[in-house]
Amino acid sequence: MSAKKFETIDEYIESFPENVQSVLEKLRATVQEAAPEAVQSISYDMPTFKLNGKRLVYFSAWKNHIGFYSIPKGNETFRKELSPYEGEKGSLRFPLEKPIPYDLVKKIVTFRMKEIQDENK
Question: Cα(66)–Cα(27) distance, rounded to whole angstroms?
Fold first, then answer.
């Protein structure tokens, strides 16, 4: 990642090579589709989606993978599906040379939305 400070997700995505841009755009669209009411921002210099003021999910591009963060607390539901992608501190790593599991991303976003809604009850 560059040391540049980004103001928007568009700026962030545009700073990467075209092949990575297309993955980031599709990832962003997948999150938007699953959580249309989520607010997009940059937090910790990464594209971030927030719901009710709480971080829903965020992601970043690295040299060889896409980092995806904010894994559901009750991730037993996903343990088997997530295991090939598990990274440090509850993050997921999607290798750039393999297909990105967009369906899994959608499930995580949906699950995280429910967690945030349950916390607000």
Answer: 10
The letter for the amino acid at 75 is N
Answer positive or negative: Cα dihedral of 83, 84, 90, 92.
Answer: negative
pLDDT bucket at 119, cuts 50 / 70 / 90: confident
Which tokens hold the place of 47?
């594209």
pTM of the model: 0.89
Q: Across the strands, what pairs with 86?
A: 92
Residue 93 · residue 61 · CB < 8 Å: no
* pLDDT per residue as tens digits for the range 34-88: 999 999 999 989 999 999 999 899 999 999 999 999 766 665 667 778 888 988 7
Structural domains of the chain, ranges and CATH numbers in brackets? 9-119 (3.90.1150.200)
Smallest Cα–Cα separation from 111: which of 73, 59, 54? Answer: 73
Q: Please identify which residue in the block is written with the tokens 């996903």.
A: 78
Amino acid (1-letter code) at residue 26: K
